[in-house]
Write a structure and sequence with these properties.
heterodimer; A: MetI-like fold; two-stranded antiparallel sheet; B: about 260 residues; alpha/beta; 6-stranded mixed β-sheet; about 25% strand; globular; ABC_transporter-like_CS (chain B); Amino acid ABC transporter ATP-binding protein (chain B); nucleotide-binding (chain B); transport (chain B)
C-alpha cells in the first residue's frame, strides 16, 4: 500500500491519548554549556575571548586584593605592613582606611555624640516603609522589622544613645511588630508622621517646627472643605495656596512662640555638618518619596484635555529634562535666594532636595506617561461607563495598572536619582564619593589613597541600588495577574 | 446563526411600558469633518429590546456610545431617563450610573478579581457598603452562572466567561437600561451561546436593551424592534418578523442577503 493510500483512508480515533511526559533532555550541565557557550564557531570564539579577559583582570588585580590590610593607622603604616608581609615591591589594598574612617563615610561631620540620632531615624524608617513596601507578605515584613529592630537597637547602644530614646525606639519597634501582625495598614499613620519626625531627629532643634509644618496640610484640608461649598476649582487652589502661605509667612513664628511656651528641643545640627551616606540617603529618600507623586501629577497633567494644564506640564517637563542636574543644583545653591523674601534662611539641603525632586519628577512623569499610554482605551471607557469620575477612575483603575507597567522605569529613575545625589559635591555638600574621600585624604595619615575609598563607596551604592532593583522585580512578580 | 438560540423564549415578562427611556431627536455627530451620525431620531420605551444592525462603519456603535456619552454629539438632543446629555458632568455621571454597557472586548479590569470588578462601581459610585455590594455581586454572578470564579482574575477566564462577568458587572449597578456593543463579536463560536443565553434571560426579565449585534437569531428571538443603519443614518426600522421576511429598503435586502445567505 502506498503512503498516499494510508493517508486517504478515513480515520476515527477510538481512544483519546493521555498526556505523556516530555522527552528526557541531554544531561544538564553539558547541554547548558553547549547551548549557551559553544553553540557555534563565533559563540565559541567569544566565550574563549571572554574567559581570557576575565583571567587577565583577575590576574591583574588578584595580588593587590589578596594583599589586603585591614588594621593600620595610616597609609604609610599600611604600606609597611604589606612590604613586611609579602616582600619588597609588592602592592596591596589598604582597607584600613574604611575601618578607620567608617563613621566619617557614614555620617560626614555630624557631631559624633549624636550619631545615634540618624541611626535611629534610619532604623525607624523601616517601620515607616513596612506597610508601604511589604504590605503583602507577613513573612518578609516580620524579617524586615525584626532585623531592623535588632540592628538599630544594638547600634544605638554602641553609639551611646540616651536611655529614654533607646526605650522609645524599642517601644516603637515592638509596637510596630505587634500591630503589623494584626493590621499592617494601621502603621501607615507612622509612615505619614515619619517625614516630620525624621527631619526632627536629623536636624534636631524644636519639635514645634515639624509640628507647625504639619499644621500646613491640615489647614489645606480645612480650606478645601470650606471653599468646596462654593466651587471645586476654588477649593483646589485654596488647598494648595493656604499651606504654602502658612509655611512661608506664619509657621516659623508660630514654632518659635510655641517653643518659648513649652520647650521640646533637642540639640540642633546644622546642614553643613551632614555628609557621607547620611546625606545621600536623606536626599535620595526624600527625592524618591516626593518625585513619585509629583511625577504622577505631571503625567496626568500632560495627558489632560485642558489646554493650559497640559501646556504647563509639557513646558515644565521639557525644561527640566533639558537642563543638566548640576545646573539646577547651582540654581539651588546660588540663585534661589534671590527669589525668596529677604531674610528667609532657606536650608541648603532642602533646596537641593527640591531640585533633585523636580528633576526626577520630570523623568518620572514621562515614564508613567508611557504606562498610561500602554493601557487599552477600553479601560478608560469601562471606568467611564460605570460612572466613575475622573479621579476615581485614575486612582482605582488606571494608575494601579499604569504604575505596574511602569515599575522597571520608575525604579530605574529612582536608582539614577540616588546615584546623582553624589553631584551635591558641586554645591559644597559632603557627598560620600568625592567630598568625603577628599576629606579623608586631607589628613596626613591617608594622603594619597584613592582606590580603596572609591571602591568602598561604589560598593555601598551598588548594594543599595541592587536592592532597589531586586525589590522592583519582586514587586513585578507579586503584581503579576495573568496566567497565575 | 439562529441555531445559537436554542431555548424557548418566555415573553410573558417582556412588557413594553409607555414610559420613554431614551429619546433622541435630530442628533448629529461628526468626527472632525466626517459626518458619522446624520439626523438620528429614535425613541426607546422602558422594557423595549432593540437590535441595531448594519454594515461596519455605519455608525451603530457610535450611536449607542452617544447614549452614555462615551462619544459626544454635536447637534440635536439625547434624553436618557429624563436627563438631557450636555457637557454638564453631573448629568453625565447620573446617566452613566443608570445605563450599563457591555463592550466587544469585555474591558474587565485585569488587576482586580471578578468579585472586585463587580463591586467596585457600586462601592465607589453608589456608596453601597462593601458587604452588601459583595452580596449583590454574588447574586448577579450566580445569574450569569459563574459564582465559582468570583475570586479569580479576568485573565484566567475564557472569553465567554469574561463577557458574562462584564454583564454581571454592569448589572451590579442596577441599571435601568443596558447597552451591548457587539458583545459576541470577539468570542469563539462555542462561547457565543452562553453569552446570548444570559442576554435572553435579561430580556425575559424586562430589561430595556439596545444591542449592536450581528446575531440575527438573537434579533428574531428577543427584539421587538430591529434598526438597520447605513452611512450614519437609520435606513429602516421594523418589528423583527417584517424586518427579516419583508424588508422595505433595497439596502436592507442586500445586507440581509449577505449575512443570511450562507
Amino acid at each position: 500500500m502506498s503512503e498516499l493510500h494510508a493517508e486517504t483512508v478515513p480515520f476515527v480515533r477510538e481512544t483519546m491519548l493521555p498526556p505523556a511526559p516530555p522527552p528526557t533532555q541531554e544531561a544538564g550541565a553539558v547541554r547548558w554549556l553547549r547551548t549557551n557557550l559553544f553553540s557555534g564557531p563565533v559563540n565559541s570564539a567569544l566565550t574563549i575571548l571572554g574567559l581570557l579577559i576575565v583571567w587577565f583582570l583577575v590576574n591583574h588585580f588578584w595580588n593587590w586584593f589578596a594583599h589586603s590590610v585591614w588594621n593600620a593607622g595610616s597609609l604609610s603604616e599600611c604600606r609597611q605592613i604589606i612590604i613586611d608581609r609579602w616582600g619588597e615591591g609588592s602592592t596591596g589594598a589598604c582597607w584600613a582606611v574604611v575601618r578607620e574612617r567608617w563613621m566619617q563615610f557614614t555620617f560626614g561631620f555630624y557631631p559624633s555624640g549624636l550619631y545615634w540620632r540618624p541611626t535611629m531615624a534610619f532604623g525607624l524608617l523601616f517601620v515607616a516603609l513596612a506597610p508601604v513596601l511589604f504590605s503583602e507578605s507577613r513573612k518578609i515584613r516580620r524579617i524586615v522589622l525584626l532585623t531592623a529592630a535588632v540592628l538599630t537597637l544594638s547600634a544605638m547602644a554602641v553609639l551611646g544613645a540616651p536611655t529614654h530614646w533607646f526605650i522609645f525606639a524599642a517601644v516603637i519597634f515592638i509596637g510596630a511588630t505587634v500591630i503589623a501582625e494584626q493590621n499592617p495598614g494601621r502603621l501607615l499613620i507612622f509612615s505619614l508622621l515619619f517625614p516630620f519626625l525624621g527631619v526632627w531627629w536629623l536636624w534636631g532643634g524644636s519639635l514645634w517646627g515639624p509640628i507647625m509644618a504639619l499644621v500646613g496640610p491640615v489647614l489645606g484640608w480645612v480650606a478645601y472643605r470650606l471653599l468646596g461649598r462654593f466651587s471645586p476649582i476654588l477649593a483646589g487652589i485654596g488647598m494648595i495656596l493656604v499651606p504654602l502661605l502658612w509655611w512661608i509667612f506664619l509657621a516659623g513664628d508660630a514654632a518659635r512662640d510655641a517653643e518659648n511656651l513649652a520647650s521640646l528641643a533637642i540639640p540642633a545640627v546644622a546642614s553643613d555638618r551632614f555628609g557621607g551616606f547620611l546625606l545621600s540617603i536623606t536626599i535620595g529618600l526624600s527625592g524618591i518619596a516626593l518625585s513619585l507623586p509629583l511625577g504622577i501629577v505631571l503625567a496626568l497633567a500632560r495627558r489632560s484635555d485642558m489646554f493650559l494644564v497640559k501646556t504647563l506640564a509639557v513646558m515644565f517637563i521639557e525644561f527640566i529634562r533639558g537642563v543638566p542636574l548640576i545646573a539646577l543644583l547651582f540654581v539651588a545653591s546660588l540663585l534661589l535666594n534671590y527669589f525668596m523674601p529677604p531674610g528667609t534662611n532657606f536650608d541648603i539641603i532642602l533646596r537641593v532636595i527640591i531640585m533633585v525632586t523636580v528633576f526626577a519628577a520630570a523623568y518620572m512623569a514621562e515614564v508613567i506617561r508611557g504606562g498610561l499610554a500602554a493601557l487599552p482605551k477600553g479601560q478608560y471607557e469601562a471606568a467611564d461607563a460605570l460612572g466613575l469620575d475622573y479621579w476615581k477612575a485614575q486612582r482605582l483603575i488606571i494608575l494601579p495598572q499604569a504604575l505596574k507597567i511602569s515599575i522597571p522605569g520608575i525604579v530605574s529613575t529612582f536608582i539614577g536619582m540616588f546615584k546623582d545625589t553624589t553631584l551635591v559635591t558641586f554645591v559644597g555638600l559632603y557627598d560620600p564619593l568625592k567630598s568625603m574621600s577628599d576629606a579623608v585624604r586631607a589628613s596626613t595619615d591617608w594622603k594619597g589613597i584613592y582606590w580603596e575609598p572609591y571602591i568602598f563607596v561604589g560598593l555601598i551604592f551598588f548594594i543599595i541600588c541592587f536592592g532597589m532593583s531586586r525589590y522592583s522585580m519582586y514587586l513585578e512578580r507579586r503584581l503579576q495577574r495573568e496566567h497565575r | 446563526m439562529s441555531e445559537a438560540i436554542t431555548r424557548k423564549i418566555d415573553r410573558s415578562q417582556m412588557q413594553v411600558s409607555d414610559e420613554v427611556a431614551i429619546s433622541i431627536t435630530n442628533m448629529n455627530k461628526w468626527y472632525g469633518t466626517f459626518h458619522v451620525l446624520r439626523d438620528i431620531n429614535l425613541t426607546v420605551h422602558q422594557g423595549e429590546r432593540i437590535v441595531i444592525a448594519g454594515p461596519s462603519g455605519s455608525g451603530k456603535s457610535t450611536l449607542i456610545r452617544c447614549i452614555n456619552r462615551l462619544e459626544e454629539h454635536q447637534a440635536g438632543q439625547i434624553i436618557v431617563d429624563g436627563v438631557e446629555l450636555t457637557s454638564d458632568i453631573k448629568n453625565i455621571d447620573k446617566v452613566r450610573s443608570e445605563v450599563g454597557m457591555v463592550f466587544q472586548h469585555f474591558n474587565l479590569f485585569p488587576h482586580l478579581t471578578v468579585l472586585e470588578n463587580c463591586t467596585l462601581a457600586p462601592i465607589w459610585v453608589r456608596k453601597v457598603p462593601k458587604k452588601q455590594a459583595e452580596a449583590t455581586a454574588m447574586h448577579f454572578l450566580e445569574k450569569v452562572k459563574i459564582p465559582e470564579q468570583a475570586n479569580k482574575y479576568p485573565g484566567q477566564l475564557s472569553g465567554g466567561q469574561q463577557q458574562r462577568v462584564a454583564i454581571a458587572r454592569s448589572l451590579c449597578m442596577q441599571p435601568r437600561i443596558m447597552l451591548f456593543d457587539e458583545p459576541t463579536s470577539a468570542l469563539d463560536p462555542e462561547m457565543i451561546k452562553e453569552v446570548l443565553d444570559t442576554m435572553i434571560e435579561l430580556a425575559e426579565e424586562g430589561m430595556t436593551m439596545l444591542c449592536v449585534t450581528h446575531e440575527m437569531g438573537f434579533a428574531q428571538a428577543v427584539a421587538n424592534r430591529v434598526i438597520f443603519m447605513d452611512q450614519g443614518q437609520i435606513v429602516e426600522q421594523n418589528n423583527p418578523h417584517d424586518f427579516f421576511n419583508n424588508p422595505k429598503s433595497e439596502r436592507t435586502k442586500l445586507f440581509l442577503s449577505q449575512i443570511l445567505g450562507h
